[in-house]
Design goal:
Layout: H1 2-30, H2 38-41, E1 42-48, E2 54-60, E3 69-72, E4 84-87, H3 89-95, E5 102-108, H4 111-121, E6 136-137, E7 142-147, E8 164-172, E9 176-182, E10 187-189, E11 193-195, E12 208-214, E13 219-224, H5 226-243, H6 246-249, H7 252-259, H8 261-264, H9 267-294, H10 298-301, H11 306-315, H12 325-334, H13 336-350, H14 358-368, H15 371-389, H16 393-402, H17 406-419, H18 424-436
Helix pairs in contact: 1-4, 11-12, 13-14, 16-17, 16-18
Length: about 425
């Protein structure tokens, strides 16, 4: 229920922000000044929704001097701090088609929505195991959305050309993490969002402003305990290994027992070493890919790596287009059902039956299974009779049809069967010979 309430609340806020964007475009068009005036570049409008929630809408155009556009959201707290958003000029140029305006709408979530998100992000308590720590919001969630000149939001999952900087807190605690609300997972996530350190000597343990760099727009907040929840999942795996036989297998005594000659020749021990070697190879291969990715320049990213080239060469033979190495594996798995369907259809065609879709192919295949042994017996009898008479199997039916004339027809058919292979032309010639006889 909490997940459904969270999805409903996020959808309602997205619709309210779209209405705010359309209203801001209308007001900006009415307030438009002469060309080149500062008012034409950025127009900030404070809006109030029917539910009483305040939001800020900024109608912007790409600045000529390539300087980022900095906007503030909400009201200042007791210290005078207001969350800020810094939009690079490259992002505005990429979104605005032909210099058209771009609308950025940002606003804080209501207190009721904060409670809903808090309940949705809390994992359900389990009576059999200790519950993982639930992430807690250290700041009020801030929703940010970009709209084009027609009031359409950017597609979900679209990555921005350059990251947008968000200043969510002035004095953030050491455990605060930049996070966004993942609508599909119904939880806070840090994927694609990272905390910015302006100087190399700045330590993450010191309190300071929480500045986040993000490549996509959604609902953001400073979250505490997000890393602890991930560590809890890892600790649960380790605890499972400790409680299982893995603790004795990977102990010093277990390793000594596996190295004994009497134990090393047993099948379970051999399989265990094979699996361990396979996992080590996978780890080395993953580390090698990470090493290549870390040293790849921007120009090299447009060219496929050697591993990707091999994957393309291997999986393109199936008639599918592949991207990188990971996407080629996904495409290969996707084409397996088509390969199974083709195999079933070919099997049905070999039995002389017509096939339709995949579902009908399975039904026809099951129907023709009882007839398959009978067909094999008929073919075997046909082969035996043809061998006894010294004829080709295809000529046997001509002899059976002629009956009284088979004595006259046999010498010619035997001669033809021994001279050349069976062809379509020969079938027609034998039929003509049977008619003449």
């Amino acid at each position: 229920e909490s997940q459904a309430a969270a999805r409903k609340g996020v959808a309602e806020m997205a619709e309210a922000q779209r209405d705010s964007a359309l209203s801001a475009l209308q007001q900006a068009a009415a307030m438009a000044g002469p060309p080149g005036s500062p008012q034409e570049q950025v127009v900030v409008i404070q809006l109030l929704s029917p539910s009483g929630e305040a939001s800020t809408a900024a109608v912007m155009k790409a600045p000529v001097d390539d300087q980022p556009v900095i906007l503030s959201a909400g009201q200042a707290d007791e210290t005078g701090f207001r969350p800020a958003v810094e939009v690079p000029a490259a992002v505005l140029r990429d979104i605005s088609a032909g210099g058209k305006p771009v609308v950025l709408v940002m606003g804080f979530m209501s207190d009721a929505m904060v409670t809903v998100l808090d309940l949705a992000s809390s994992p359900p308590a389990s009576p059999l195991a200790s519950s993982p720590p639930s992430p807690k919001m250290a700041s009020k969630p801030l929703s940010i959305t970009l709209f084009d000149s027609e009031g359409h939001p950017l597609p979900k999952g679209m990555k921005l050309k350059e990251p947008i900087l968000l200043t969510l807190q002035q004095n953030a605690s050491a455990g605060a993490t930049c996070a966004f609300w993942d609508e599909e997972a119904g939880a806070w996530s840090a994927e694609g969002v990272k905390r910015v350190q302006f100087s190399p000597g700045e330590s993450a343990s010191l309190t300071g402003p929480l500045v986040c760099a993000t490549s996509h727009l959604t609902i953001f907040a400073a979250v505490i305990g997000l890393l602890a929840a991930a560590i809890f999942g890892t600790s649960q795996v380790l605890q499972t290994l400790v409680c299982s036989n893995a603790a004795s297998i990977f102990s010093a005594k277990g390793a000594q027992a596996l190295l004994r000659f009497s134990k090393a020749t047993q099948t379970p021990v051999i399989l265990l070493w094979v699996l361990l070697a396979f996992h080590v190879l996978c780890l080395l291969f993953a580390a090698w890919l990470d090493y290549l990715e870390s040293f790849k320049s921007e120009e090299e990213q447009t060219e496929p790596t050697r591993t990707e080239t091999k994957a393309r060469r291997k999986y393109t033979c199936l008639g599918i287009e592949v991207g990188g190495f990971v996407s080629s594996i996904i495409d290969y798995l996707r084409c397996l059902p088509e390969a199974l369907e083709k195999m079933v259809k070919d099997s049905i065609k070999s039995l002389g039956m017509k096939v339709g879709g995949f579902a009908w192919a399975i039904i026809d295949y099951m129907r023709c299974l009882p007839e398959a042994p009978e067909k094999m017996v008929r073919d075997s009898i046909k082969s035996i009779q043809a061998a006894k008479m010294g004829l080709c199997e295809e000529s046997l039916k001509l002899v059976v049809v002629q009956r009284d004339e088979e004595i006259k027809l046999l010498p010619e058919l035997k001669k033809r069967c021994s001279t050349r292979e069976w062809t379509v032309q020969r079938i027609n010639e034998d039929e003509d010979l049977a008619k003449k006889s």
